[in-house]
Write a structure and sequence with these properties.
The protein has about 260 residues and is α/β, with parallel strands linked by helices. The strands form three sheets. A six-stranded mixed beta sheet has the order 5-4-6-1-7-8, with helices on both faces. The chain has a two-stranded antiparallel sheet with strand order 2-3. Strand 4 (about 70-75), helix 3 and strand 5 (about 95) form a beta-alpha-beta unit. It is globular, with a radius of gyration of 17 Å. It has seven helices and ten strands. It is about 35% helix and about 15% strand. It has helices at about 1-15, 50-65, 80-90, 120-125, 150-165, 180-195, 245-250; strands at about 20-25, 30, 45-50, 70-75, 95, 175, 205-210, 215-225, 235, 235-240. Residues about 245-260 have low confidence and may be disordered.
C-alpha cells in the first residue's frame, strides 16, 4: 500500500510544478438518524456514528499524507461539517461551512427542507476547526426542488465550484458534501476533463481533480485505500468488496485511478 501512497504523492508534486492546483472532494462519513452510539446534536438533522467519526479521522490522516493545505468547504448539515472538522483536526486545515455545496433537494426520499444548524451552533461544536473568518447566513436551507435525473442540481454545483475556485485563485480546495452533490460534481468533472471515471461515492471516499491556470481540468485520482474493507459504507449499508466486488468499482488493492 505504501507504494500507492508514494505514487499519489509523486503525481501531486509533479502536477503542482506544472502550475496546477487541486480540488479534493469527499462525501460525508457514515450517517444515521438515530441509534445506539449515534452523535446527533442538531434537531431535525441526521447524526453520525462512531464509525463515521473514525472514517473522518482516517480521511484527515490521508489528507495530511497528501500535504493538503487548502480550505475545506462543507455543506452546513451536521454530518458534513462534522466530517470536515474531524478530518481538519488531523491535517491542520480550517473548515468553512458553505450553503453553496449543500445537498440536492427532492421530494422522493431526500427532502432536506428542514433542520440545519446556524454557524454559531457549529462553532460551539467545533470551536478549533471552523475558520474564524467563516461567514454563513442563519437561513441557509435551499428549498427549491431539484428533481432526479435533471441538470438543475448539477448546474448549481458547477456554479458553486467555479465561485469557490475564483475565491481561491492560487490555492487548493476541498469540498465535503453529500452523495447527490458528489455525483453531480463527478459528472461535471468528467465532462470538463473529457474522460469517464469510475469510483463509488462511499462515505469519506476521496476524489481528486486538478485545474491549471488556463482552466483545463484533469482527473487525478480516487482513493478509499485508507478505509479498512469493513469500514467501507454508504451510510448504514456496508459494502463488502469481497462479497460484492462490483460495488467497489475498482479492483481490490488498487484504489487509485490516474490520468498520467
Amino acid at each position: 500500500m505504501k507504494k500507492y501512497i508514494a505514487l499519489l504523492l509523486g503525481i501531486l508534486t509533479l502536477s503542482a510544478g506544472a502550475g496546477e492546483r487541486f480540488i479534493y472532494v469527499a462525501r460525508h462519513c457514515q450517517a444515521a438518524g438515530k441509534g445506539k452510539g449515534v452523535v446527533r446534536p442538531i434537531k431535525d438533522d441526521a447524526g453520525i456514528t462512531q464509525l463515521g467519526i473514525q472514517q473522518s479521522k482516517w480521511l484527515g490522516k490521508r489528507l495530511k499524507e497528501l500535504k493538503f493545505k487548502g480550505k475545506i468547504y462543507a455543506s452546513p448539515y451536521y454530518r458534513t461539517v462534522a466530517t470536515a472538522c474531524y478530518a481538519a483536526a488531523e491535517c491542520g486545515a480550517k473548515v468553512y461551512p458553505d450553503a453553496r455545496v449543500q445537498e440536492r433537494v427532492h421530494k422522493d426520499g431526500g427532502n432536506l427542507k428542514k433542520g440545519g444548524a446556524t454557524l454559531k451552533q457549529l462553532r460551539k461544536l467545533f470551536p478549533n476547526e471552523i475558520a474564524a473568518d467563516a461567514v454563513m447566513a442563519d437561513t441557509w436551507l435551499y428549498k427549491k426542488e431539484e428533481p432526479k435525473n435533471t441538470p438543475v442540481h448539477r448546474k448549481r454545483m458547477a456554479k458553486s465550484l467555479d465561485a469557490i475556485l475564483a475565491e481561491n485563485p492560487d490555492g487548493d480546495i476541498m469540498i465535503v458534501s453529500h452523495a447527490g452533490a458528489i455525483g453531480s460534481l463527478k459528472a461535471e468533472m468528467m465532462e470538463r476533463a473529457g474522460k469517464n471515471f469510475s469510483g463509488g461515492t462511499w462515505n469519506c471516499a476521496l476524489f481528486i481533480y486538478a485545474v491549471d491556470k488556463k482552466g483545463k481540468f484533469r482527473i487525478v485520482g480516487y482513493d478509499i485505500s485508507f478505509l479498512p474493507a469493513e469500514a467501507i459504507t454508504s451510510n448504514l449499508h456496508k459494502i463488502d468488496p469481497k462479497k460484492n466486488p462490483k460495488l467497489r468499482k475498482v479492483k481490490s488493492g488498487v484504489d487509485y485511478k490516474y490520468d498520467l
